[in-house]
Amino acid sequence: MYNIKSNEGGYLMEERVIKLQADLEELKNKVGEKTAAKLELDKYSRIIHRLAEFSADCEECRQYFDELESHLLQMVNQAKTKELTPQEIKVHRQMTANITSHLMKKHQLVPSGYYIGIYLALGISIGLVLGFLLFDNMPLGMPIGMEMGVAIGSGLDADAKKKGKVM
Ligand SMILES: [Zn+2]
């Protein structure tokens, strides 16, 4: 059987990205808004570009890109005739998690709004402790903690964006 993967260089990365984006759009249209949100398809446009970008130097990104090509195509074909099953959605979400984790660990990328999420939660718990220590009233410290968390988190998010590190 003819194997596309053995024909490296036969397909330009750029063409593959365009094809993949087209599959993604088609999938979005086919499954409807609710399922598209469940599949986090909004993220995928950026993920595709990142994988393509790193593919030149990263074997794993190259593999994920290959996987994504067959995976998205399969989902599009499936969505044409019937609804995606919960099992398929689960497989897709696992794939998203694997790719995201690789991009974070190997390429130091962060999801959009990553730091604000972390520091807001951290700020709230610190605020509660402060409220207890300073005012003998935990909830009183909460707005202070939240403000701190938002300030630090949004600063770090803005910095990551400036450095092109947002996924
Ligand atoms: Zn990689």
Please describe what this structure looks like.
The chain has 167 residues and is an all-alpha fold. The chain has helices spanning 13-38, 41-55, 59-81, 86-107, 114-135, 138-162. It folds into 2 domains: 4-107, no CATH class; 114-162, no CATH class. The protein is 80% helix and 0% strand. The longest helix is centred in the first third of the chain and has 26 residues, at 13-38. The chain starts with 12 loop residues before the first helix and ends in a 5-residue tail after the last helix. The structure holds zinc ion. Zinc ion is lined by residues 54, 58, 60-61, 102, 106-107.
Protein traits:
0% strand, mainly alpha, 6 helices, binds zinc ion, 167 residues, disordered N terminus, 2 domains, elongated
Set out the fold topology.
Blueprint (H helix, E strand, L loop, with lengths): L12 H26 L2 H15 L3 H23 L4 H22 L6 H22 L2 H25 L5
Helix pairs in contact: 1-2, 1-3, 2-3, 3-4, 5-6
InterPro entries: Gly_zipper-like_dom
Pfam families: Gly_zipper
Protein name: Glycine zipper-like domain-containing protein
In short:
Residues 116-155 form the Glycine zipper-like domain. The chain has 167 residues and is mostly helical.
* Structural class by sheet pairing and helices: mainly alpha
* Beta-strand percentage range: under 5%
Which molecules are bound in this entry?
zinc ion
Q: Which geometry do the CA atoms define? A: elongated
Helix-strand sequence = HHHHHH
As a percent range, the share of helical residues equals over 70%
**Weakly predicted, low-confidence segments:** 1-7
